[in-house]
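HUMAN: Mind making up another protein with tokenized structure?

ASSISTANT:
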Amino acid sequence: MIVAVIANVSKPSVVSFLPKVIEKLLSLNITPAMLESEKEEYYNSESVSYYNTYDELAQSSDVIITIGGDGTIIHMARYAAEYNKLLLGI
């Protein structure tokens, strides 16, 4: 299973919470997926799949998790609907 993790990295609390979510997914043998642009600064691991665009990320995942707020959920809702993916907001 691949779970896309989209985080509003403009919020400091989200940046500190992001690694916990990634580590929990890995401990459950779930492959986290993130944007390539966030790889170096927020979470760089060979165990994570990285994609260049939100489209690629949403299309390749089974579930989308957003971490941030209403805006983050709303932003990803379009992709979740387009690719018929489940969306979970934290």
